[in-house]
UniProtKB/TrEMBL annotation:
Organism field: Actinopolyspora righensis
Source organism, top-level taxon: Bacteria
One Pfam family, short name: EAL
Domain PAC: 239-291
Residues covered by the GGDEF domain: 322-456
All residue ranges annotated as the PAS domain in the record: 165-235
PANTHER family in UniProt: BIOFILM ARCHITECTURE MAINTENANCE PROTEIN MBAA, DIGUANYLATE CYCLASE DGCP
Domain EAL intervals: 465-722
Alphabetized PROSITE patterns for the sequence: EAL (PS50883), GGDEF (PS50887), PAC (PS50113), PAS (PS50112)
Protein name: PAS domain S-box-containing protein/diguanylate cyclase (GGDEF) domain-containing protein
Species classification: Bacteria, Bacillati, Actinomycetota, Actinomycetes, Actinopolysporales
UniProt xrefs under NCBIfam families: GGDEF (TIGR00254), sensory_box (TIGR00229)
InterPro entries: Biofilm_reg_signaling, EAL_dom, EAL_sf, GGDEF_dom, Nucleotide_cyclase, PAS, PAS-assoc_C, PAS-like_dom_sf
């Protein structure tokens, strides 16, 4: 720093040239240049958070403050202190900021100083330095205090959050249903929660002195130890397994365990966390669901799926020469109990039957199952003391003959039984179940409380019919069925009085099926109602064409028992007859005598409603039973058709001299006395037709007059014959 400046450069009253120096310092140009240079110097020594122009403005104010202090000596120290404070507030606190500022001010303000002027300037600069240092120290202390307060608040906040976190952890630790244990690296428990105590049956004191490995099943301890080593070595991220743990009472607790390693900031393991979920309730639920899947909910017996599995197991485990007998039985007429007494009573009877069947095989190597609503299966291994087929079938019905008393009523259901017996080496589960079902159907055809053994000679026929019944719905959808027509003629003069619709189906690779076979298979396949509706629509549409051509004949359509008692029969018929123009009275529906005599009364209700629509009805499958004759006196029928099996009796004895035919011949006048015409189907020869006419029958159909014809062939036959009179 130069001290060669003269006294005239200072703005003080110390001699010649003073006015000139004052004028120079007070000029705006001089102050601006000094502020610019000072700002440039400071910006190189410290980071000052303001633009250079703003800093120059701030420094210019300091320069003016310095000049004011130099003019008034009594304020030099105060001015210097203020300047130092302002520099600190401007953040001019770099290592060289003060030095460079003093150097600049001295060089500028003392170009050639006198002793007095030098003293004043130096005093000022010392004050600047003092103010600067004090302000800087205060700033540092303030920053330290601020930092100290921030650190304190941060520490307090961290401690508060830690306490909250610990409280939450402790709440979860103590209340969670999952057992938790904190362990040392050697597996020794340090702390356990109440859930782990409950799961294992130990107290916390007992567990704290126990190692985790001591709780595992001895047979699994080695595997678990290996997994622990891998976990600690970092070869596994965690351990999650289902394991048996040994409880305090020595029992096994099926659990799901999860083990994790806690590591410090350096990644070193220092603690293990063991979590144990008690799976006993889940296991019990799974076992319950498994049992329900394989057992009937009402009786507790094996269901069809479980029975089949057991049958497969028996065939796989027994010697090939061992013999197994499968009894499949169905309770007879059980619908009467459900409908008459209620389904709760029905369930009680099913339970009683299940208990009695189970009692029959209690001393045998056998199994009882409920494989359907009222259908049961009994599988027996034929040991030396095991009853034979006939004996055991009789035992079943004898056991069921004992009344079951419910609400004071004694009920004794009977059962039809199908039986199949096979050597283990020759048997297949599916084949045995199918064969037993075939035998059961044979027993039911024979009547109630009957049993039948599977006939292997019947097997091909059953297989064929089962296949045809299975494909029947698709055949109906694809239009493979046909409706043929057969004339019903007067046995007196041969005149056509009505046309009967007859079904036919030609399955691929099978012989043609006629009307009765189609209806029988339709009952098995479940399309009997859909097939009835299609037949009605097709035949009624054809009748409309015949009426348009001038052939005023009646259409006869025969219905099976299920078709006759269907609650939707009336609505289906109404929909059909409203589609075409013929008078509804030209339709004659032949209702099944079996359905009309049934206890439900649905078929009789259908007849009454159809009569209100103008549709006429008749009764077919008539077998001349006294109850049927009594029914006909009240039933508003237009005709009665004999059952085909009665007609076939006359084929064997055309003299009507056999007792059964004489009885049949004596029935005809009784029917006619009710004012009802009697029709005879399936008449094959003219001689048979003459014989039935002599017995008093009015109408006949069958090969004696015509086979079943197509629609076009029937049209030609109608043209060849004189107009027919009304069958009524």
């Amino acid at each position: 720093m130069s001290h060669a400046s003269s006294d005239r450069d200072l703005p003080i009253d110390d001699g010649a040239g003073q006015d000139e120096r004052v004028a120079t310092w007070e000029s705006g140009r001089w102050c601006a240049d000094l502020a610019t240079q000072w700002a440039r110097w400071l910006s190189h020594t410290a980071y000052i958070p303001m633009a250079l122009g703003s800093l120059e403005s701030e420094l210019r104010e300091l320069i003016e403050l310095i000049l004011e202090g130099l003019r008034r000596p009594e304020r030099i120290e105060t001015t210097g202190h203020s300047v130092g404070t302002r520099l600190v507030s401007l953040h001019a606190t770099g290592e060289d900021s003060l030095t460079r500022s003093l150097e600049l001010l001295c060089r500028t303000l003392l170009p050639g100083p006198s002793n007095e002027s030098a003293r004043r300037v130096l005093t000022l600069l010392a004050s600047v330095a003092s103010g600067y240092a004090e302000a800087d120290r205060g700033s540092a202390l303030e920053q330290q205090e601020t930092l100290k307060r921030a650190l304190l608040w941060s520490k307090l906040d961290a401690e508060r959050k830690l306490r909250v976190s610990e409280d939450r952890f402790r709440e979860v630790f103590n209340t969670t249903p999952i057992g938790i244990g904190l362990c040392d690296l050697d597996g020794t428990f340090r702390e356990v929660n109440p859930a782990l105590e409950r799961t294992l049956g130990y107290s916390a004191t007992e567990l704290v002195s126990t190692a985790v490995t001591e709780l595992f099943d001895p047979g699994e301890a080695e595997i678990v130890s290996t997994n622990y080593v891998e976990l600690l070595q970092g070869l596994r991220s965690g351990l999650r397994e289902r394991r048996n743990l040994v409880r305090a009472d020595g029992t096994r607790a099926w659990t799901y365990i999860a083990v994790s390693v806690l590591r410090d900031t350096d990644g070193e393991a220092y603690r293990l966390v063991l979590m144990v979920e008690d799976l006993r309730e889940l296991n019990d639920l799974q076992e319950q669901l498994y049992f329900q899947t394989l057992h009937d909910p009402i009786t507790g017996l094996a269901n069809r799926q479980h029975f089949r599995t057991r049958l497969e197991g028996a065939l796989a485990s027994f010697a090939p020469d061992e013999r197994l007998t499968l009894y499949q039985l169905r309770l007879d007429g059980f619908g009467l109990i459900n409908h008459g007494l209620g389904y709760e009573i029905g369930d009680s009877i099913v339970q009683s039957v299940a208990n009695r069947l189970s009692g029959l095989v209690r001393d045998e190597d056998g199994l009882v199952a409920r494989i359907g609503g009222t259908e049961f299966a009994v599988l027996l291994r034929q040991c030396p003391g095991t009853p034979g087929i006939a004996e055991f079938a009789e035992l079943i019905n004898t056991e069921l003959d004992e009344p079951i008393y419910i609400n004071g009523n004694g009920l004794a259901p009977t059962a039809s039984i199908g039986v199949v017996q096979r050597s283990v080496g020759d048997a297949e589960p599916t084949d045995m179940l199918w064969a037993a079902g075939v035998a059961l159907r044979s027993a039911e055809k024979a009547g109630k409380r009957q049993w039948a053994v599977f006939d292997p000679h019947r097997a091909p026929v059953e297989l064929t019919e089962a296949k045809l019944a299975a494909i029947m719905p698709g055949a109906l959808e694809l239009g493979e069925f046909e409706v043929g027509y057969r004339p019903l003629v007067s046995l007196a003069d041969g005149e056509i009085v009505a046309v009967e619709a007859r079904l036919a189906w030609q399955p691929e690779g099978h012989e043609r099926l006629e009307h009765d076979a189609c209806l029988r298979l339709a009952e098995r396949s479940g399309i009997t109602l859909a097939l009835r509706d299609w037949t009605l629509r097709t035949a009624w549409r054809q009748l409309s064409e015949w009426h348009a051509a001038g052939f005023d004949h009646q259409l006869v359509v025969g219905l099976s028992p299920n078709q006759s008692r269907d609650p939707d029969l009336v609505s289906r018929v109404r929909r059909v007859v409203e589609e075409e123009s013929p008078d509804p009275s030209r339709l004659l529906l032949c209702m099944s005598m079996t359905a009309l005599m049934g206890t439900g009364g649905e078929a009789v209700d259908n007849v009454a409603t159809l009569a209100d629509m103008g549709v006429r009805t008749a009764a077919h499958e008539f077998r001349a039973a006294p109850a049927e004759l009594r029914f006909l006196r009240k039933f508003p029928t237009r005709a009665v058709l004999l059952a085909p099996d009665l007609v076939r009796l006359a084929e064997e004895d055309e003299t009507f001299e056999s007792p059964e035919l004489r009885a049949l011949g004596g029935m005809v006048p009784l029917v006619r006395s009710c004012g009802i015409p009697l029709a005879v189907p399936e008449v094959r020869t003219g001689g048979q037709a003459r014989l039935w006419r002599e017995q008093g029958c009015d109408i006949g159909s069958g090969p004696f007059c015509s086979e079943v014809l197509s629609a076009s062939e029937m049209t030609e036959l109608l043209r060849e014959n004189a107009p027919a009179s009304d069958a009524s």
